[in-house]
């Protein structure tokens, strides 16, 4: 593709990026308008659309949306959270446990859903203890965003990474005989919990709480479906060729069986199904291929590599810094889509491990969203809950807490990443 072709692809991509950030509620429409523009300009052909979409990832994502929605409907997640919280009697330990629980749930459940599940528990604890709900809601938000990237099914950026690099579910735990993204993220999680303790210890230390009200579990069918789906992903991960098509198909079959188990609950689940994100992911996979085929990525990679004179450590830090900075203000899905192939091309040019740079990008992009109230969807929801409770919590106060958490979580994750994958 010539210079004019690359320029037109770049212009359309940046327009998608800008409108994606401004018109947050219409993201799927914006992505598919971009796909349509590529078709009109003949940068994309209809026959390529189905081939460019990673259907395996789409099926995995869709099936786990269905399963986790049933877990919400069956009161499984909230019941687990309450049981964990009730094991402590002090405010500071309940804050740390609830925050850690948020992280655990976010490894398999969408971040906004995690916040909505745990927020009522946080509000009840704060009301009973007559303290501010800000520390609890902030802990839930920050840990959910961080841990969402730890597994393939946790967050869209992880799925985009898996699509780019052909990673299986098991690859997020152990890859090429080394500790992978899940364990690297845990270093950030531990430092993040330490940061929360440091910030809020004076407010909560030594104070006691009463037990929260207990949610009764309606059914355990969703737990069985979840276990079977995870086991299937693990088993299919041992064969990458099998994972490439069977993982998603098997997961989808399990979720469809669950849907057929109850007509009444199935209608509720289908109404809440995240159609928007599924359409976004499909469009993103198409855009990824168009941008990659244009040669734009190679051009940007060459520029960064030349400007930093091939210094691997400086390139590593620069990509993480850029990822953190941009994700603090804009949605990380289009950013990750644009920057991961740049990291891959730079690694290829320098003959270094691609996972070093791409994992750094993913960590920076997901944790960076914690800095501002507009950096991630979970932040917007959580910030709204705090405001509805009548709390005096400014944009600047959010940034102060979010920045400290992000700084230490990124620092410790990056150090571990460097020593494992350099």
Features:
20 helices, globular, two-stranded antiparallel ribbon, about 0% strand, about 75% helix, mainly alpha
Task: Give a written overview of the molecule.
The chain has 422 residues and is an all-alpha fold. It has helices at residues 3-22, 27-40, 46-52, 55-73, 76-85, 91-106, 111-129, 134-147, 156-165, 181-204, 221-237, 240-260, 263-272, 275-294, 296-307, 312-327, 332-350, 354-368, 377-388, 395-421, and strands at residues 174-175, 178-179. It has a domain at 76-169 and 178-216 and 294-421. Helices cover 76% and strands 1% of the residues. A hairpin with a 2-residue loop joins strand 1 and strand 2 (178-179). The longest helix is centred in the last third of the chain and has 27 residues, at 395-421. The model has no long low-confidence stretch (mean pLDDT 85). It is found in: Cell membrane. Pfam families: CitMHS. Keywords: Cell membrane, Membrane, Transmembrane, Transmembrane helix, Transport.
Helix-strand pattern, N to C? HHHHHHHHHEEHHHHHHHHHHH
Tally of individual helices: 20
Radius of gyration: 21 Å
How many strand units?
Answer: 2
Tell me the distance between the termini. 34 Å
The largest beta-sheet arranges its strands as 1-2
Average pLDDT for all residues: 85
**Portion in strands:** under 5%
Q: What low-confidence regions span 5 or more consecutive residues with pLDDT below 50? A: none
Described by the principal axes of the CA atoms, the overall outline is: globular
Q: Which structural class matches the secondary elements?
A: mainly alpha
Helix share, percent: over 70%
Biggest sheet: strands, sense, closure? 2 strands, antiparallel
Keywords: Cell membrane, Membrane, Transmembrane, Transmembrane helix, Transport
GO molecular function: arsenite transmembrane transporter activity
Family: Belongs to the CitM (TC 2.A.11) transporter family.
Organism: candidate division WOR-3 bacterium
């Amino acid at each position: 593709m010539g210079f004019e072709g690359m320029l037109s692809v770049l212009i359309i991509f940046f327009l998608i990026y800008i409108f994606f950030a401004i018109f947050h509620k219409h993201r799927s429409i914006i992505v598919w308008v971009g796909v349509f523009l590529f078709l009109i300009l003949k940068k994309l052909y209809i026959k390529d659309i189905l081939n460019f979409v990673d259907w395996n990832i789409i099926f995995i994502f869709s099936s786990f949306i269905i399963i986790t929605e049933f877990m919400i409907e069956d009161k499984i997640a909230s019941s687990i959270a309450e049981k964990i919280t009730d094991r402590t009697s002090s405010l500071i330990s309940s804050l740390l446990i609830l925050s850690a629980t948020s992280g655990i749930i976010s490894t398999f459940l969408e971040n906004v859903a995690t916040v909505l599940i745990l927020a009522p528990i946080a509000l009840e604890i704060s009301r009973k203890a007559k303290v501010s709900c800000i520390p609890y809601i902030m802990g839930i938000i920050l840990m959910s965003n961080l841990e969402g990237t730890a597994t393939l099914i946790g967050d869209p950026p992880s799925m985009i990474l898996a699509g780019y690099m052909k990673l299986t579910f098991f690859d997020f735990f152990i890859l090429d005989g080394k500790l992978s993204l899940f364990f690297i993220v845990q270093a950030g999680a531990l430092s993040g919990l330490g940061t929360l303790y440091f910030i809020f210890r004076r407010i909560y230390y030594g104070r006691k709480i009463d037990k929260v009200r207990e949610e009764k579990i309606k059914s355990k069918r969703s737990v069985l479906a979840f276990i079977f789906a995870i086991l299937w992903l693990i088993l299919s991960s041992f064969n990458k060729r099998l994972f490439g098509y069977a993982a998603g198909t098997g997961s989808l079959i399990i979720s469809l069986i669950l849907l057929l188990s109850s007509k009444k609950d199935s209608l509720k689940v289908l109404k809440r199904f995240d159609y928007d994100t599924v359409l976004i992911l499909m469009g993103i996979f198409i855009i990824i291929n168009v941008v990659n085929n244009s040669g734009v990525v190679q051009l940007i990679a060459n520029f960064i590599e030349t400007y930093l004179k091939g210094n691997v450590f400086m390139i590593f830090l620069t990509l993480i810094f850029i990822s953190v900075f941009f994700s603090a203000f804009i949605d990380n899905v289009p950013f990750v889509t644009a920057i991961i192939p740049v990291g891959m091309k730079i690694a290829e040019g320098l003959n270094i491990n691609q996972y070093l740079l791409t994992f750094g990008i993913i960590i920076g992009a997901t944790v960076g969203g914690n800095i501002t109230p507009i950096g991630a969807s979970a932040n917007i929801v959580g910030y709204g809950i705090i405001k509805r409770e009548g709390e005096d919590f400014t944009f600047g106060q959010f940034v102060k807490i979010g920045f400290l958490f992000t700084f230490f979580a990124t620092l410790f994750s990056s150090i571990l990443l460097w020593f494992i994958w350099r």
